[in-house]
Structures are given as C-alpha cells and as structure tokens.
Design a protein that fits this description.
Chain lengths: 203, 167
C-alpha cells in the first residue's frame, strides 16, 4: 500500500488533470470496454501514475467487483493519483461525455423510429446489435475458458445453460451456481492463481 | 415500470453482473416480468449503446431512457455508479478472500453461469431480430464484424445503408 498511502498525502497530479484525461477517454473510446481499458493503460503509463504491474493488479481487482469493471478501475486510478477528489474527477471525466452522447443518441433514435420509412433500416440495425451481442458472448466464453480445463468447464457451462432454459429465472440460476460452488469448491476452483505482481496491495 | 422499480432492476442487474453485457440476462428477465417487450427494448438499446463511446454497460442508460425518458436515464446512471464503489472494501479484503478456495470457486461459478445466461439471452435477441432474410444477414454480419474487431460504428452504418437500400 506504499504508493496508495503516499498518494493520499502527495497527489501525483491535480484533480483537474485527472478529469481532463478521463474526459478525453470518455469522448474517444469507441469500441466498448477493451478500447477504454487500452486507453486507460496508455494514460497511466504515459503520465507515470501507475506501473504496468500496478495497472494489471487494479485491473484484476476491478474485474472482481460487481458492476461495470471500468468504473471500478477508474475509482482505483483516481484514488492513486489524488485521493477522493481523483476518484470523483475520474468518474465524472469518463462518464459525462459518454453519457451525454448516449442520451442524445437515444433521443435521436427514438425520434427517427417514429417515421415509417425508418422501420426497415432500424430493423437492420437491431439485427446488427443482436449479432454484436452474440459476438460479445462468444468473446466472453473464450476468455473465461482460456485458463481452465476445457471439458470440465464446458460441461458446467452446459449445465448452467440448461438450467437457464429450463427455469427461465437468471437470478435463481446464479444462486444455484454459487450454492454448488460453495458445496463443491474442488469442482469449481479451476482458475490458476496469478503470480504476485508487487502491485498496490503488496506491503 | 416505476422509477423505483427501474432503479432496483438496474442496480440488481449490475450487482450480479460483472461488466459488459453480463447484466443482460437479469435485465431481460426483469423487463419481461414488468410486462415490457424485453427483446425489442434491449435490441434498440444495444443498437444505440454500440455507437457511443465508453463501456458497453451504458446500454442500461438507454434502457432507462426508453422506459422512462430522461428521468429513467438518470435513475439508471445512479444505479450504474453504485456497485463499482464496492471495489474499495473489496481491495481491503482482497488478499484474504483470494486465498479462500470457496470464494474463488463461487466467483468462477458465477462468471460461468453469467456467460451461459448471456448466451441464452443473446440467442433470444437473435430469434427476435432474425425474422426475415435482412435480419438474419445483419445478425451474421454483426457477429463476424465484432469477432474481427471491426469498429461497431462500421456495423451500424452498414446496417443503416443496407436497410435504406432494401426499403
């Protein structure tokens, strides 16, 4: 925690710089989560806010956090740079441009969808969005399967998918998954542990 | 759907999901329970979110906007911002938790179940949108484009152009 503790006393940069840097990312990182993470990594390394190992350590931790993991990582980066102000500035910087664009586009989309001539193009756009969802599910499946025994993980995946179709209650399926893991930890604990990185949690 | 219900739904979907579209299955289930046209609503929300900068999870803000206008979007934003704050207590407990076999097992099982449910939800979206040749072709194009890491805006422009030419 040496760097983090130090950062609370001596900011690595003013909060305004954190805000501006993340606002730039919020405006330009088209392409979803991976594009945003890549831009944040470049920012942290270029400004020497974090080392590569620290960035990865924070990335892993934010992946474990519920919700949008990028926001969790922005909180950690902002705090490292200049404490609570940095956290707020990072979140505001990333979210304000993205959200403004999102709401304006949603308004425009709703407006256009009222026109009969727009129905076919919007139907095509909806088809494209469904394809994107399939693609993201495939990418997520590939990522999660990479470090684990494929056959065992696939069988469990198919079990959960069957439960999902049968029960049609996502929350119940997730509850069953957690309960099974707590009862049979040896079956589910198959992700290899990463080597210690010397990141922010190291004494 | 009331604003309170919308807030609770987005918050719950976020607390259980782990970024990206992992909140989609819970969101779809809750929208269906509320009597809304879940698949149509989600498809149009995803279409908008795919062409905006920032995380994919912002599709929830679009859902909020379509359900309850600007107030719905603001409620969804609030519900989106709360769960990531949990990273702070999690950071303190991290080293202890990661040594617990049951914690690691539960995290992996939860991730696997979320991906399985996401596959089902995505399949349902495909069934809803691929009702004709154009829809089916766009689903295939969207899948291939994103797997090839093409920018989503390219797919959006392609779909609009093809749709306009066909109509």
């Amino acid at each position: 925690m040496q760097r983090m503790s130090k950062s609370h006393r001596v900011p690595l940069a003013p909060w305004t710089e954190v805000f501006t840097a993340f606002a730039r990312i919020g405006l330009t990182s088209f392409g979803g989560g991976s594009a945003t993470v890549s831009a944040m990594r470049q920012l942290c390394l270029r400004k020497r806010w974090l080392t590569e190992a620290e960035f990865i350590s924070q990335l892993v931790l934010s992946r474990l956090t519920p919700g949008i993991s990028i926001l969790a990582q922005v909180i950690l980066i902002g705090r490292t740079v200049c404490g609570v102000r940095g956290m707020a500035a990072g979140l505001a910087g990333l979210m304000i441009p993205s959200l403004t664009i999102t709401i304006v586009l949603a308004w425009g989309y709703e407006l256009i969808s009222a026109y009969p001539r727009a129905q076919v193009p919007l139907h095509a756009v909806a088809g494209m969005a469904a394809g994107f969802a399939i693609s993201l599910a495939i990418q997520l499946f590939r990522d999660i399967m990479r470090p684990v025994p494929f056959l065992r993980a696939t069988l469990i995946f198919l079990l959960f998918a069957a439960l999902g179709v049968w029960l049609n209650k996502p929350l119940l399926v997730m509850g069953i998954a957690i309960a099974l893991a707590l009862i049979f930890p040896d079956v589910f604990d198959m992700v290899p542990q990463p080597p210690k990185t010397g990141g922010t949690n190291e004494p | 759907m009331s604003l309170e219900h919308l807030f609770a739904t987005v918050l719950m979907a976020n607390l259980i999901g782990f970024g990206g579209l992992s909140s989609l299955p819970v969101m779809r289930g809750e929208l269906e329970t509320a009597g809304l046209q879940a698949d149509s609503l989600l498809l149009h929300s995803l279409a908008v979110a795919n062409i905006t900068p920032g995380p994919n999870g912002l599709y929830l803000v679009v859902v909020g906007y379509f359900v309850a206008d600007i107030q719905g979007a603001l409620v969804a934003i609030l519900a989106l911002l709360l769960p990531p704050v949990l990273v702070l207590p999690l950071e303190k407990a991290r080293s202890r938790l990661l040594h617990l076999k049951r914690f690691r097992a539960a995290m992996f099982a939860l991730s696997l179940s979320v991906v399985a449910l996401l596959a089902i939800s995505s399949g349902s979206l495909v069934l809803h949108s691929a009702t004709d040749t154009l829809g089916f072709a766009m689903v295939c194009a969207g899948t291939v484009l994103l797997l090839c890491r093409a920018p989503p805006i390219l797919g959006f422009v392609l779909a609009l152009t093809v749709g306009w030419l066909v109509s």
